[in-house]
Amino acid sequence: MANLAPVISDIEDAAIRLRGHACRTPLLNAPLLDADLGRRVFVKAECLQKTGSFKYRGARNAVAALSDAQRAAGVIAFSSGNHAQGVALAAREMGSKAVIIMPADAPELKIANTRALGAEVILYDRDTEDRDEIGGRLSGDRGLTLIKPFDNPQVIAGQGTTGLEIAEQAAAAGLNSADVLICCGGGGLTSGIAIALAGKAPALKPYTVEPEEFDDVARSLATGVIQTNTRRSGSLCDAIVTPSPGQITFPIMAAHCGPGIVVSEEDALRAMAIAFNRLKIVLEPGGAVALAAALFHRTDTKDVIAVASGGNVDAPLFRMALEKYG
Amino acid sequence: MANLAPVISDIEDAAIRLRGHACRTPLLNAPLLDADLGRRVFVKAECLQKTGSFKYRGARNAVAALSDAQRAAGVIAFSSGNHAQGVALAAREMGSKAVIIMPADAPELKIANTRALGAEVILYDRDTEDRDEIGGRLSGDRGLTLIKPFDNPQVIAGQGTTGLEIAEQAAAAGLNSADVLICCGGGGLTSGIAIALAGKAPALKPYTVEPEEFDDVARSLATGVIQTNTRRSGSLCDAIVTPSPGQITFPIMAAHCGPGIVVSEEDALRAMAIAFNRLKIVLEPGGAVALAAALFHRTDTKDVIAVASGGNVDAPLFRMALEKYG
Fold first, then answer.
1. What is the model's pTM?
2. Contact between B59 and B155 (Cβ < 8 Å)
3. What percent helix, strand, coil does chain B show, rounded to 5?
4. Contact assignment for B315 to A276 by CB distance below 8 Å
5. Containing H/E element for B84?
6. How many other CB atoms are there within 10 angstroms of residue B94's CB atom?
7. Does the distance separating the beta carbons of B318 and A323 come in below 8 Å?
8. Residues of B in contact with A112 (CB under 8 A)
9. Tens of pLDDT along B154-167?
């Protein structure tokens, strides 16, 4: 596939590679929530995926698609979060070796978890060192293959398996037409799901959801040109904050998605509390923005599917969300 | 079936009745948890079932198995908790009418939720009124059918569909032999799963798990005679506290289960925090005792499946568990 956009058969191939490895996460529904809202809301619970987010799907597919020689040499990724854990686990499962470049000020727990999954973690100083330089040098010296977090066709195809499952589960639930709201960072998950739905369930329409002040995708979709965020950090929704959509992902999203939706951090925290009470799942703020959009940003009564992309939240933040909105 | 124990074909019939209605809950696995423990731990996440516990399965099967005339007349149940919500939703979905007898001092939220699911809630005073007298009178006057919480063959068969799914999901995960630990109150879930596993996956061995001081099933299994708890309330694990195992459920458990396991309330709270961190699910204390047994009461390295039976916990208690053990 090189740097071309994946097509539906790439996603179907990914589904075969992931079978027996990725969790087929449930499409949850809570009758009491439907009653509150006056329409049906379904939640694709990717927080229940291995490593706590959808990222494992793309990582596993990308590592599986390498040649034996590439896998034997190892892989490398830059990440302080969910992609790191997905790549680490996928590499370990497939007998490869993962090097993860993380900022030295990343949360201790995330560094420890990534190491516990068998990865070699290399820390760098954000202020004085150049991440790309370190990564480039290591890749060259050791022959490591870079697994980008979203602008990689095999990663997109892996994330797209979420969309194949949504298409099947929606049909089984009698959902023939619905809006599908997706937590969006660089667009790997959204573009993968968009391709899957266009191929398998075209009456399910994808929409991106982002936090306020980090709405690069919404602005890119509105203008037709890739836009960049001014701020790069400082969001509770850190898991889905990226500078801008990808060169591969953006055209896919522009072709398939409706206008981007933007929600506040407070709405994400409220959605976390409702997911706790009504669905019994743990969401991180960035993984809750799609549910927040379904709950608080809709005036019609069309059925909706919210993709809950991850649940890697520390206990103090979760307790705070429950204290405010539980 | 009258009052006879269900057999495997009754559970298979129940699975057909529940198809498209009950959630096929995932069998979750967390590689980091396995690494901590030195063996594989899988969690059957029934907290994700409709209404937040496995109880919906048995209720739906029991209501579905009634005659049209019985369903038209309506059903009645005694419950302050998860069985109430399961019966209320099942009745509403099938065009029946549910009357739920609840103590007047039950939590406001559970009363409100049961009403929101369409049930007629009748409150009684625990000190001055006789629940059975009220129920008997209402049943007689209105021709309502009583849906008992566990000692009912169709309820047991419905709960047993959890075991059919465990057998299929364990095989798909390559789990050929394992201990299956089950949160146990009156034994409806345990006995249903035990019949399903005996028929479909005999190398998966069921065990009951109860909280300390409410270990009537463990003592009954040890002595071969039904034993009763001294205390009837006052446990954080209230969802699985019953006076004694049932006349139908106990012989099934005695025939199939290993020795009963007993865990402390503190271990249940610790398991809730670990389920939050590693599995991204919300468990109530009574729904966490099986996972607690898997985590803290095992010295061997045999693979284990813990059934997480419910997640209906109030936010303040969940926050407390995270504060202590998160």
1. 0.96
2. yes
3. 50, 15, 35
4. yes
5. helix B82-93
6. 14
7. no
8. none
9. 999 999 999 999 99
Query: What span, in angstroms and rounded, lies between the C-alpha atoms of B143 and B96?
Result: 13
pLDDT score of B233: 79
Measure CA B133 to chain center: 26
Tell me if A116 and B48 make a contact (CB, 8 A cut-off): no
Question: Band of the pLDDT at B1, cuts 50, 70, 90?
Answer: low
- Provide the b/e sequence for B161-184 (b: ≥16 CB within 10 Å): bbbbbbbebbeebebeebbbbbbb
The shortest CB-CB distance from A281 to any of B24, B280, B312 is to B280
Quickly tell me which residue has 């959808």 as its tokens. Answer: A54
Nearest to A48 among B174, B280, B311 (CB): B280
Binary contact (A280, B280; C-beta < 8 A): no
Place of tokens 């249940």: B268
C-beta separation of A61 from A89 below 8 A: no
The phi-psi region of residue A138 (left if phi > 0; otherwise alpha if psi is between -120 and 50; otherwise beta) is alpha
Confirm or reject contact between B113 and chain A (CB < 8 A).
yes
Nearest to B33 by CA among B43, B25, B24: B43
CA dist., res. B247 & res. B18, Å (int): 25
Tell me which amino acid residue B142 is: R
Asked if the C-beta of B2 comes within 8 angstroms of chain A's C-beta atoms, the answer is no
How wide is the angle at C-alpha B87 spanned by C-alphas B83 and B90, nearest 5°?
Answer: 140
What letter does residue B206 receive in the DSSP assignment? E
User: What pairing do the DSSP bridges indicate for beta strands A27-29 and A41-45?
Assistant: antiparallel
Residue B298, pLDDT above cutoff 80: no
Q: Is B233 helix (H, G, I), strand (E, B) or coil?
A: coil
What length is written for chain A? Answer: 326
Q: Answer whether A30 touches B (CB < 8 Å).
A: yes
pLDDT above 80: residue A121: yes
Task: Catalogue all structural domains in chain B, each as residue range(s) with its CATH number.
Answer: 8-54+152-325 (3.40.50.1100), 56-146 (3.40.50.1100)
Q: How far apart are CA B287 and CA B310, in angstroms?
A: 5
